[in-house]
Amino acid sequence: MSLHRSLKTKPAGLNQHRNVLTRAERIEMLSNDDKYTEESSPIGLPKVGSRKMKVAGKKKKTDDEGAEESGDE
């Protein structure tokens, strides 16, 4: 039987953004924010937002900048 294409792992498949964090990742994020201590129970942890960071792209030139650089006008 063949494997569905959505289930195949790609080389970058492990680097993709995940919305759901493991318990260890949640504990790590909470301890960085001083919301979790060693005495706290790992069961019933509060929700932790996992925000995807946007990578800055190249800045597009505007029409004014393009005309100045080319020296046509």
How does this structure look, described?
This protein is mainly α and 73 residues long. It has a domain at 17-46. Helix content is 25%, strand content 0%. It contains two helices and no strands. It has helices at 23-32, 63-70. The longest helix is centred in the middle third of the chain and has 10 residues, at 23-32. The protein is flat.
Summarize the structure.
With 73 residues, the chain is mostly helical. It has a domain of 30 residues. The chain has 2 helices and no strands.
Features:
25% helix; 73 residues; 0% strand; single chain; mainly alpha; flat
Q: Radius of gyration over alpha carbons?
A: 23 Å
Estimate what percentage of residues fall within beta strands: under 5%
By secondary-structure content and strand pairing, the structural class works out as mainly alpha
Q: Total number of helical segments?
A: 2
Secondary structure elements and pairings:
Elements: H1 23-32, H2 63-70
